[in-house]
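ESCALATION

Customer reports they have been waiting on this structure for their group meeting. Please prioritize. Original submission:
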Amino acid sequence: MPKIKICGLTREIEAEYLNEAKVDYAGMVLFFPKSKRNISIDRAAAIMKYLDPGILPVAVTVCPTADQLEEIQSAGFSMVQIHGSIEDAVLERLSIPVLKAFNVHDLSEYGRFQKNEKVAGYLFDAQIPGSGKTFDWSVLRKLPKDDKLSLIAGGLNPENVREALSATRADGVDTSSGVENDDGTGKDREKILRFVENARGCG
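Update from on-call: job pushed to the front of the queue and completed.
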């Protein structure tokens, strides 16, 4: 059964949508004010209180500092998703697993993170994360496989998620803009349910 991550939660009610859909991961953007989905640690903690125990909360970050990672761990996140650069020394201080995000046009450090025991999996995203655009899924076939979790992101929505899973054979999928309300603010319950139903149709 494909793993499913819904990213960019900003409200408590969205945790209820994820509970209903029985997804695997709930992503919240932290310490990245450039994103319209960025929220504070306190708001993230409030949202996490509404998540079912079976849904793992994931802190989504960009080039996080050691202090920011300490805050994330203290807040009770189960995993941290890291976009951009991160030093090995900072990684070693983490006590929660890492989901390393890669821009598919820059996979030069893939081998480095394959070897790091702190990295539990990878997220393969489009050239501009959060843009709602897909990428050429065939590039993933060239990467050496291992036993770590692999998630595909970038422009996924209820209409194309099944095709993405079939084309990449990834372990799961991640979406944010693909299940937002039509005005681009907040998550749409019906879109989340359709996304999950279509993804699990590939299981």
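Sent to customer with the following note: The chain has one domain: 3-200.
Escalation resolved.
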